[in-house]
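ligand=zinc ion
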Amino acid sequence: MRFLTADYLFPLYRNPIKEGVLQISDEGKVIDIIDHRSKIDFKKLEIYEGILCPGFINAHCHLELSFLKGEIDKGTKLVTFINTIRKKRNNYSQEDILKSIEHAEIEMKKNGIVAVGDICNNLDTIIQKKKGNLQYYNFVEFFQIFKEKEEETFLKIKEIQKKFIESKLKATIVPHSPYTVSTEMMGKISKNINSQNELISIHVEESKSEIELFKNKKGALYDWLNNIGANPQIWFKRNSSRAVVKELNFKKLMLVHNTFSKKVDFEENYYCVCPKANLYIEKTLPNFSIFNPKKLCVGTDSLASNNKLCILEEILEIQKNTDYDINSILKIASKNGAEALGFTELGTFSKGKKPGVNLVQYKNNKLQNQIKVLA
Ligand SMILES: [Zn+2]
């Protein structure tokens, strides 16, 4: 049994508590919250400077791309980014790829991350995930711009989904983005959902060229798709990414990036921002004022577009660019992501949960870039 206390306790299901105590079992299960440390025998207390909060949820990652760390230049823009990933993939041995995945997971754990919403295009990450060090919601991604290959790709990713589920790992087939999936396949993907507890994640409005593609039928993305001979139905009758998302006709959605979104019109949806990746690829940030902070999650994206898999560094960017208080920011880092991904035992210090415990430093009501994992 442990009694942890710091300057402030952030349970996230209720307001922060000054010098509150978090009572947990040796396995990290929350037993109780005590309103003040004076109520506990001093000798039993573990006293820290800083704040205590639940483990972080990395709501958007591509763990399988970890081998690309430092391989892609900053500010390359999306089309070049996607092409470079596809080209570089063949330069690495399977052993290198598996090692990079293992290292990336160790890094996430050290940075206080307890669960990940992870995009999968293959089975490279499955060995690591089966070890159960972190919890994963696997989004098996459908990406196919050629009409004649749609069915074949769908069968291939259904097979990948099956392998994850057989390994007792949560897995849902999701569309990559509005510009890589046709209307027909959007319908097929939402029909493939088996339970209302599942979540569909999709990359939305990550680049200016995505907005241009649907609005004006021109721009870098349009040129790329057109030159490569992609299915014109992808852009032909669709006027915006948000209109494409409606084709999914599905309740539980997480829209990722929204870097160039002017407004969001799905109050019920979850939104996920990846600030450092946006700065890396497009050198810009989303307009945070358009989001409802209660529905906002945060992700690192992959090591192809980030130097670290660290949620604390992501929320420091949010802190710098919004007027959200620490409590709202920590909800974005933990509670909202756990809710969106359906990790009911994570995200807050409610009794009975096993959410992980992070000690984070703060100064003048601002979080600082210093973290220690306590449980
Ligand atoms: Zn992504």
